[in-house]
Amino acid sequence: xxxxxxQAAETLERWLQDPSVDEATKGELRALENDPQELEERFYxxxxxxxxxxRGVIGAGSNRINRYTVGRATQGFAKYILxxxxxxxxxxxxxxxxxxxxxxxxxxxxxxxxxxxxxETHLFPSLRSTPQLSYSVRHLKATGGVVITASHNxxxxxxxxxxxxxxxxxxxxxxxxxxxxxLEVDSFDAVKRITQEEAESQGLLxxxxxxxxxxxxxTVASVSVAREEIVPSxxxxxxxxxxxxxxxxxxxxxxxxxxxxxxxxxxxxxQEQPDSExxxxxxxxxxxxxxxxxxxxxxxxxxxxLLIGTDPDADRMGAVVRDNEGKFVVLSGNQSGALMxxxxxxxxxxxxxxxxxxxxxxxxxTSEMGAAVASHYGATVFNTLTGFKYIGEKMTQFEASGEYxxxxxxxxxxxxxxxxxxxxxxxxxxxxxxxxxxxxxKAQGKTLYDVLQELYEQFGFFLESLESRTLKGKDGVxxxxxxxxxxxxNPPQEIGGIAVSGILDYSLGIDGLPKENVLKYLLADGSWxxxxxxxxxxxxxxxxxxxxxxxxxAKDKVAxxxxxxxxRVDGN
Length: 572
Prior knowledge:
The chain has helices at 6-17, 23-30, 36-43, 67-84, 103-116, 130-139, 172-184, 196-201, 210-221, 227-230, 250-259, 293-302, 333-350, 369-376, 388-401, 427-442, 448-459, 473-489, 551-569, and strands spanning 54-57, 92-97, 120-123, 144-148, 157-163, 205-207, 240-243, 265-267, 306-310, 317-322, 328-330, 358-363, 380-384, 405-411, 415-418, 461-470, 494-495, 498-505, 519-523, 528-533, 539-548. By secondary structure, it is an alpha/beta fold.
């Protein structure tokens, strides 16, 4: 134990001496007494709120996610909810969870702590998607929401995301209050908790079900701009293969696709059922081609037109389309976003429903191609920091002021939302839009790949790439900060012979945005790259974007830029 840092040693001892910590947890910690490095990782800090609340490896310890860290976080959130509520009766919180390890247990723990603080909870009895949680907070007029998920992280992770009354994830000023209240909880004895029987008998715990599911899928289907065409014909001639990657998307996505008229939908059988181990993939992430291996195989067997994949909590959607040689290619988040903006806005325009004050919202690391398409249709484009919570915040501002009408929001990381029913990205909606776009263009003799090439010809050959470096543990945190400090204190004058024309340091709070540890470098030829530590994983992400004279030219430019920048990031 002498090898532990003072903070880790003291926190570990508090856990071992705390009578409210169960013996199984203490036994797990005592079994590690000869592994000081593991104990240091578990106790050198408290698990912190990042881009989306808590996210961490499951296990005992202050830097792990477990019933105690969930309970402590919920106690802080409960104080925030009670402070925010100004109505009559009791405040309420909706809670949902995905298919990960201990998700049902953490869900119930959060509910019983909220109930212990006099807050009503509405729980889904089985897994539901994150966008449905966002919708349900608004639909049920709740004071807040919680979803237990670690999105597309590896199986050993779980997470805890909190939502405000608008159905959006907490933005920095809200999160700072919750964090301050969590820090006030200095022992697990301070966490107020009652039993499930007490919560139900006192009317503090309610179970949700099929009625709420139907309301959600009906609402998503109402955003369709081609339902009248797909139901009678197009949906019968368009073959879709879908994989939920063992997560929550299976039932809602099949339901919505059915509602708008798609009859040829085939689910990858090996990945249809919930599985906390995500046993058929290295990572349940639709951003990675490997996640589509089984879908591509089935798609080839069935001669499918489109493949769709969603992450475990069904807020991210990836699409695979056939190229001009008939081979399946995975669209990037930026490409899917540009296609959906073009399809959605052009159809609204055709139908005379495109508002004159329309707005499209994207993040600072998202391609400018979607912005160019949106501007073509007369929409005003807004940029936010990374995280859909900022897009949701813009939506609420538009709704309050009436100055703009929200049309579409998206991130390069496969998150999209059209419609005003939620305040988080929705893979259910995105699956519907990309499918109906595919069917609509197929009726014109085009594939989505064909339409993408048309957009390149019209708006420019935009191309992006993303590199990331995973640096785990206490040392990894220091390494990531060291990389950011190096680039901030020694900015490059040129990259690969191209002058750096501007530096955007978002830690200074520029462009009216909250302060965030992000650096973006603008190059004289219109290219840019951006360094950003992930808020949800032990990674530093580096984004690259170019605009070429042709697709091959763009590929060459982004490859050269990536080599130059990553050489320095990796210390070469």
